[in-house]
Amino acid sequence: MSIEFSYPVSRRSLLGAGAGLLLTTALRSLPARAAVPVDHRIMAAPTRARLAGEGHPETDVWAYNNTVPGPIVRLRQGEPARIIVENHLDQDTTVHWHGIRLPNAMDGVPGLTQPPIKPGESFTYEFTPPDAGTFWYHPHANSLEQLGRGLAGAIIVEERETVPVDRDLLWLLADWRLTSGGEIASGFGNRMEAAMSGRVGNTVTLSGQVSEEEPIRAGERIRLRLVNGSLARVMALRFEGHRPVIVAIDGQPCDPHEPEGGRILLGPAMRIDVALDMQGEPGRRYRVIDDFYDGLSYWVTQLAYGEKPPIREHPPDAPLSLLRNPLAEPDLANADRHELTLQGGMMGGGAMTGMGGMMGGMMGMGGGAAWAINGMSMTGDGHAGMEPALTFQRGHSVVLVLRNETAWWHPMHFHGHSFRVLSRNGVRVPHRQWQDTVLMAPRDAVEVAFVADNPGDWMLHCHVIDHQMAGMMTVLRVA
After folding, report:
1. Would you say residue 218 has pLDDT above 70?
2. 167-305 and 332-478 share one CATH topology?
3. Which CATH class is domain 24-158?
4. Most CB contacts within 10 A, which of 81, 280, 292, 360?
């Protein structure tokens, strides 16, 4: 696959940034659940950040608590949380707690689940996360620009029993479209981009800065939590000289396995946890390479081994499997079956495809919608009165077939639920994978299953944000 950029891409601009956050993991069980939630406060406001590193100009950004990415929100599985969000922007906002199965009123979709948070106002989100794992938070109001200007942060819901690793690291990867002066380029909502791959940037950061290297000690075992917070960039990560083992996808534990071809495919909004045994040579550096786009390979960072001897000669014998979360297993034999077809987008020669029967009007972006689901378009971020495409009876098992009839990639995200991915193009998916965001290649057909056990009106949309804003969004109702 190839893509064209309207801004120059250089080796310096396509590094992936800043020192990854070191999160020391204690090998113990969590204490009993708290009766009273602990308050977290998050403030959305303009600030400045040095995205490209020392020696480069700062960039005007929008951020949570004045940091890019925002602070890590640490929660505990099964314990109540209360998060107060203050809006210091000059426009409405909300926060969506991506991947967490929470009450519908806490989902952060303006109009559909809550009133938007007006400038100068605040909103209190209260929920009890049922699942441990890696999640993230971001706006669901003017999300193309708000996420594109920096509003994003990670959530770690800690397991009751932690896995035995030497270090627990988080890399929140994001890309930015910067001008030669280091500012965020204008032009959000470009119609041509919206009908193709979306707004792919020219600078990749790792936890908020361009990263030259990440320090490593030979012999250690690391749990690396990868989060793709990009607007549109799909990543395929290769770890030179290493064999990462995937242990969780979108926060849900899977059968530990090495990625196909050694490449970790990470679409926008997806999270993948890997176990890495650092068996490289002391003093050497090994690149982490993203080679998803044809001819546009670059390295995100380097694993930089110190000179000290290995802390152990052989990888530890401790198992890599994570304790599974309490997800209801769908009854496939008696499940209700439905199909959703993804349509639209630009084809060769500039033609649009599959657009018959669509509703027009791209909200806030000018022009008509570019995408549809089952022939219908919902544009923007969400609003009151959105009619559901499908209605599921609460407690019923559902098998849903997603068909991508377009020429473009789509990470499809379902709010409020995780689904088990059963098959892709008729081939059974191995490793028992549960996800909330499934990446679909052009012409893919993916079969997923879940129990519709969380009542409410829930968004299903593409997490290439341009695609969502331009119509690839719908509502699924659990009643």
Report:
1. yes
2. yes
3. mainly beta
4. 81
